[in-house]
Each structure stands twice: as C-alpha cells, then as structure tokens.
C-alpha cells in the first residue's frame, strides 16, 4: 500500500537542492520574477508567531495579511542568516518520559494523561490512536510545546522543553515544528500560493527564498496546478495538502497533525498519507499524528494506542 501511495506523489526534487550561496546570487532575478508573476502582498519578513492558532487569531491575521496586500509596496530586504536553536543531536526527535497532565475545572481535578512514555525517531511516521477523550490532542499539544506537562519530561532533539523559557519555546515552535489540523486552518481569502508564502513570512525566512520554496512545497504535495486557487475553490483533500505545504514550508524538523484525515473520504485520506510518506523522504521531516481511522494505520512506522490517558502495551 505504501509503495502504491508513494507512486502517486513521487517527486525527484530534493529539499536541499539549492545551496544558500546560489540562492544569494540569484536573489535579484528571483525578486524580479516574484514581483511580476505572483501575487505579492507581503513586503518584508517580520517575526510573527507560527504556533497553532485559534480561529480568532486566524481571522485577525487574515485581516492584517489582506490589509498588507492592499497597502504595501514590495521592498527589498536583506537575507538574515538563520540561527540554530538546537545543538546537533543524533537521538530521537521526541522522548517523552512519564508525562502526566491534569486540569482543574472548578473544584475538580481531571487527570487526563497518566504516565506517558514514548519515542519518535527521525523520519518516522508515528500515529496516536484511541477513542474520543482518551487524551490524544492533549498529548499532541504537549509534544508541540503548546502546553506543559503537570509532571514528567519531554525532550525535543535531546533538549528538555520544560526547562526552556516561553520565548525560547515559542521560537522552537516557529522554527522547528509545523502544525496540521483536522479543519485545514487556511486563510480563506488567500490563494494556495499566498497561504504557503504567509507561513514563510511568519517564520522569518528571507524573502529571496520564498518563490522557490513555495513552488517546491506546492509541487511536493501535488498542487502545482492549483497555486492560484483559494480554499473554497479546492476539495477538502486539496485544502489539506495546501495546509501540509504550509506546515513544511519553513523546513520544520517535526510535523504534528491532529486527525488530518478525519474530514476526508478514504481516497483523499490516502492521498494525504501518500504526501506524508513523500515529505518524510524528500524533506527529512518527522511526523506524529493522531487518528481514529483504522484504514491508515498500516502507513505508520509505529502506532501508540491510547486508552484513558495511558498507552496500551
Ligand atoms: N483544558 C482542559 N480542561 C479540562 N479538561 C480538558 C482540557 N483539555 C482536555 N480535557 C479533557 O481531557 C480529555 C482528553 O481530551 P483530548 O482532547 O485530549 O481527547 P482526544 O483523544 O483528542 O479526543 P478526540 O478523539 O475526541 O479528539 C477529555 O475528557 C477532555 O474533556
Ligand atoms: Mg483530539
């Protein structure tokens, strides 16, 4: 099945095909082409948060992106060298040790995660399955640094996230993690191209790299013929593939996906899984996702089954 899926979206291009030097040399030419061929609504990279967004934040950002499109004119910006946040590490991308999470609601304390141990190795596709309410999203949020364990520890590329300050954790989320949601979370008024480009701007990627990178990511998810379509002009599967392109555009190490196929029929769900396998190979990304769908489990390298806040062994 995996081989058949891979065929669907196999691409020869590699993520690391262009050196930084070459990109520098090509910058003036790329800038010119970008301005003449593609919709340009953004002028300079400005640090915005790429963490998971609430629907209110999404609407606010969309308003501001649209306002920028109308008001600003293109300017040239200097490429800033990317600072590494993490020291080199050969071990797992994620190591989770005896993680507990409780929530207080009124006078009640709800113990949701009850001692989770897990490991996600580089370039693995790991799935969390389990009934509604078993704690999958709670765990995924913690893996992405969106929430903190009540006790236990989570190491991201060997680094204990709980010892990091808020700013550093936010920077890690922006830089090293991509999020994908069940409901796509695309900006409805922006085209597929603009949606992916926005994610590069948010991650502070130099503008000179946007055109190549957006084109590459949309190609990778099989949507190079849909770049000008807005979300409502695309199928659910296509929208989810734009969301994947958007999530990987800034070259995160880890992709976290909360039920990414839940709103899709089985054919579109299979296409999304084929895209996941393809980006693991081409982009060397690692994926951890939740699912209810038993038909896609065979695509995983490892499946953790959750029941009532614990993994079944
Ligand atoms: N912030 C919170 N405050 C109180 N309880 C919470 C909070 N977040 C989650 N819970 C509770 O934790 C439990 C697990 O929720 P979670 O969303 O992680 O489940 P899930 O496995 O993702 O379910 P589903 O498959 O329906 O998405 C639920 O009973 C939920 O009500
Ligand atoms: Mg959930």
UniProtKB/TrEMBL annotation:
<dbReference type="InterPro" id="IPR027417">
    <property type="entry name" value="P-loop_NTPase"/>
</dbReference>
<keyword id="KW-0067">ATP-binding</keyword>
<feature type="region of interest" description="Disordered">
    <location>
        <begin position="1"/>
        <end position="62"/>
    </location>
</feature>
<keyword id="KW-0813">Transport</keyword>
<dbReference type="InterPro" id="IPR003439">
    <property type="entry name" value="ABC_transporter-like_ATP-bd"/>
</dbReference>
<dbReference type="GO" id="GO:0022857">
    <property type="term" value="F:transmembrane transporter activity"/>
</dbReference>
<dbReference type="InterPro" id="IPR017911">
    <property type="entry name" value="MacB-like_ATP-bd"/>
</dbReference>
<protein>
    <submittedName>
        <fullName>Putative ABC transport system ATP-binding protein</fullName>
    </submittedName>
</protein>
<dbReference type="InterPro" id="IPR003593">
    <property type="entry name" value="AAA+_ATPase"/>
</dbReference>
<dbReference type="GO" id="GO:0016887">
    <property type="term" value="F:ATP hydrolysis activity"/>
</dbReference>
<feature type="domain" description="ABC transporter">
    <location>
        <begin position="94"/>
        <end position="312"/>
    </location>
</feature>
<dbReference type="GO" id="GO:0005524">
    <property type="term" value="F:ATP binding"/>
</dbReference>
<keyword id="KW-0547">Nucleotide-binding</keyword>
<feature type="compositionally biased region" description="Basic and acidic residues">
    <location>
        <begin position="19"/>
        <end position="36"/>
    </location>
</feature>
<dbReference type="Pfam" id="PF00005">
    <property type="entry name" value="ABC_tran"/>
</dbReference>
<dbReference type="InterPro" id="IPR017871">
    <property type="entry name" value="ABC_transporter-like_CS"/>
</dbReference>
<dbReference type="GO" id="GO:0005886">
    <property type="term" value="C:plasma membrane"/>
</dbReference>
<dbReference type="InterPro" id="IPR015854">
    <property type="entry name" value="ABC_transpr_LolD-like"/>
</dbReference>
<dbReference type="GO" id="GO:0098796">
    <property type="term" value="C:membrane protein complex"/>
</dbReference>
């Amino acid at each position: 099945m995996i081989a058949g899926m891979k065929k669907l979206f196999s691409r020869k291009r590699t993520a690391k095909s262009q050196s930084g030097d070459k990109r520098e040399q090509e910058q003036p030419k790329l800038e010119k082409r970008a301005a003449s061929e593609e919709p340009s609504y953004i002028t300079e990279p400005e640090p915005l948060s790429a963490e998971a967004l609430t629907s209110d934040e999404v609407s606010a950002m969309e308003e501001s992106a649209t306002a920028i499109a109308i008001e600003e004119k293109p300017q040239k910006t200097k490429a800033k060298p990317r600072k590494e946040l993490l020291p080199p590490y050969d071990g797992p991308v994620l190591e989770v040790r005896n993680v507990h999470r409780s929530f207080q609601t009124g006078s009640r304390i709800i113990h949701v995660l009850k001692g989770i141990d897990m490991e996600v190795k580089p370039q693995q596709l790991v799935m969390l399955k389990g009934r509604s309410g078993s704690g999958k999203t709670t765990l995924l949020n913690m893996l992405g640094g969106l929430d903190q364990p009540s006790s236990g520890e989570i190491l991201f590329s060997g680094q204990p996230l709980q010892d990091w300050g808020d700013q550093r954790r936010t920077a890690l989320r922006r830089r090293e993690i991509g999020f994908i949601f069940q409901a796509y979370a695309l900006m409805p008024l922006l085209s597929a191209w603009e949606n992916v480009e926005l994610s590069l701007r948010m991650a502070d990627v130099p503008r000179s790299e946007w055109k190549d990178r957006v084109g590459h990511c949309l190609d990778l998810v099989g949507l190079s013929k849909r770049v000008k379509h807005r979300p409502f002009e695309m199928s659910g599967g296509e929208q989810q593939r734009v969301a994947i392109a958007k999530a990987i555009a800034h070259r995160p190490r880890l992709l976290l996906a909360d039920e990414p196929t839940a709103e899709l029929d089985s054919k579109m769900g299979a296409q999304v899984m084929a895209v996941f396998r393809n980006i693991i190979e081409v982009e060397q990304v690692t994926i951890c996702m939740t699912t209810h769908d038993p038909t896609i489990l065979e695509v995983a390298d490892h499946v953790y089954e959750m029941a009532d806040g614990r993994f079944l062994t």
